[in-house]
Amino acid sequence: MSKKCQVTGKKPRRGKSYSIRGIAKKKKGIGLNVTGTVKRRFLPNLVKKRFWFSEENRFITLKLSTSAMRTIDKRGLSAVVRELRAQGQHI
């Protein structure tokens, strides 16, 4: 399964990690300099979570970001499941 949230659609993003050397000007140095950059990935905080879906009297397993769990708490599980099924996802 991909590293993508089923509700919010969050997925890994690309970025860079910087290596910095030098002494700050505040400490009487010549300043901080970037001496190297390395590509990296910022991964979403995903959790595989089971919810009790009372309308169908069964458990539903979703792969969610933690912010999506807050969305489910706010809007309700049935509203979120209805929206996912309208998008064509199999749940």
Automatic annotation (TrEMBL):
SUPFAM superfamilies: L28p-like. Coiled coil: none annotated. Transmembrane segments: none annotated. Keywords: Ribonucleoprotein, Ribosomal protein. One of its GO terms (cellular component) is ribosome. It comes from the Bacteria. Pfam families: Ribosomal_L28. InterPro entries: Ribosomal_bL28, Ribosomal_bL28/bL31-like_sf, Ribosomal_bL28_bact-type, Ribosomal_bL28_sf. NCBIfam families: L28. Belongs to the bacterial ribosomal protein bL28 family. PANTHER family: 39S RIBOSOMAL PROTEIN L28, MITOCHONDRIAL, LARGE RIBOSOMAL SUBUNIT PROTEIN BL28M. This is Large ribosomal subunit protein bL28. It comes from Candidatus Neptunichlamydia vexilliferae. The gene is rpmB.
